[in-house]
Write a structure and sequence with these properties.
Layout lengths: L13 E5 L32 H13 L4 E5 L9 H9 L5 E6 L4 H11 L3 E5 L5 H8 L5 H13 L4 E7 L8 H11 L2 E6 L17 H11 L2 E4 L9 E5 L5 E5 L12 E4 L4 E3 L8 E2 H6 L4 H13 L5 H4 L2 H4 L6 H4 L2
Parallel strand pairs: 1-2, 1-10, 2-3, 3-4, 4-5, 5-6, 6-9
Antiparallel strand pairs: 7-8, 8-9, 10-11, 11-12
Bound molecules: S-adenosylmethionine.
S-adenosylmethionine (SAM) binds next to β3, β5 and α12.
Length: 334
């Protein structure tokens, strides 16, 4: 089977797989405590796809031309023995396999993940200022422990990118120190505009620090120049330090939407296929799997969903769309 294209001519190239809807952080912009408190009901274990089911679905995506898989969540390292899943997926020929984590459990896991075949890793970190970081993760987790995780990944030979979500009035002052620190460490820093995902974070456009402003903040101290994307559909716009000391990326999904090039499918922890981060409904692949569907039937189901895909939420975003019901990022997979 070859490549499948949606109604806007976009191929299916990347798959983000959420392996759990649980997280050990309560980042204020993602899983605020008031909503994801003690009483919040996360998915029961039997509702989660098993590793074998995830592998089968991944092979079906690959049959449609998917080349890259990112494991995410919730916090993917909370899923027990995740390295076993990594090994199973790393055995699929030609697949670029990566993972996004908050880094809390990374120091203990980095080597096992690398040994299992993980190619690269993205660690989310919103500030080097311990007070600001603790306030943002809202579980009093210290920066030092995330930095230890990053060091362990680098030592294990995993290339590391660092994702930083910037929210106005919360961590703008952390942008420049982050740029300095990760330039020195040889990690690519990616600055992410705060998005209106889900409906629990109380998003307002005023809270978004536009990517152009983020680039100017860094450029004023560490001169930058734009560089070409690595491939079609790359979400980050790339800039390199003019002195040759590395690069940064900005993900401007609010101020410069990139729906036209979006080649991404998402699989939620309970096995639903979503064709947009801002989708309101998914397509239940778990039911198919558990009803005994063949590989051909699974591939046909994915193919027909993709063929009908016309999502371009970020291009249509307006005051009217902000209040639409949306699925939480921790569920659908960030
Ligand atoms: N727990 C893992 C982590 O922290 O990287 C993986 C899941 S998390 C949902 C994936 C990424 O989404 C993180 O980098 C996080 O900062 C980002 N994110 C969450 N909510 C966001 C929002 N409202 N706007 C922009 N990025 C967001």
């Amino acid at each position: 089977m070859g490549s499948v294209a949606d109604t806007l001519g976009r191929p299916l190239r990347d798959v983000r797989i959420s392996v759990t809807d649980r997280c050990n952080f309560r980042c204020v912009y993602c899983m605020p405590k008031e909503v994801f408190g003690r009483d919040f009901e996360f998915l029961a274990r039997e509702k989660l796809l098993s590793f074998e089911e995830i592998e089968r679905v991944t092979r079906a995506f690959v049959a449609h031309g998917a080349e890259k898989v990112r494991l995410t969540g919730g916090e993917p390292l909370l899923r027990r023995e995740l390295e076993h899943l990594v090994a199973m997926l790393a055995a699929i020929p030609g697949l670029d396999l990566t993972l996004t984590t908050n880094g809390a459990l990374l120091a203990a896991k980095a080597q096992a993940l690398k040994d299992a075949g993980l190619r690269r890793i993205t660690v989310s970190l919103d500030s080097l200022d311990d007070e600001v970081f603790r306030a943002m993760n809202d579980v009093d987790f210290s920066v030092i422990r995330v930095l230890e995780g990053i060091d362990a990944a680098v030592d294990a030979g995993l290339p590391v990118k660092v994702n930083m979500v910037v929210k106005r009035g919360l961590n703008e002052d952390s942008v420049l120190p982050m740029a300095h620190a990760f330039r020195e460490r040889g990690c690519i820093l990616r600055l992410i505009e705060y998005m209106d995902v889900g409906h629990t974070n109380g998003w307002r456009l005023d809270d978004v620090v536009p990517a152009a402003e983020l680039v100017s903040m860094i450029d004023a101290a560490l001169p930058l120049e734009p560089i070409e994307a690595n491939y079609r559909g790359e979400v980050a716009r790339r800039y390199r330090y003019r002195d040759g000391s590395g690069e940064i990326g900005v993900i401007a999904s609010v101020t410069q939407p990139f729906c036209g090039d979006c080649t991404r499918a998402r699989l939620s922890a309970d096995g639903s296929l979503y064709t947009c981060l801002f989708a309101t409904r998914g397509h239940d692949l778990r039911a198919l799997l558990r009803a005994g569907a063949s590989d051909a039937e699974l591939e046909a189901a994915i193919g027909s969903v993709w063929l009908a895909r016309g999502d371009r939420y970020s291009e249509l975003r307006s005051a009217a769309t902000v209040d639409l019901p949306k699925v939480e990022m921790s569920f659908i997979g960030g």
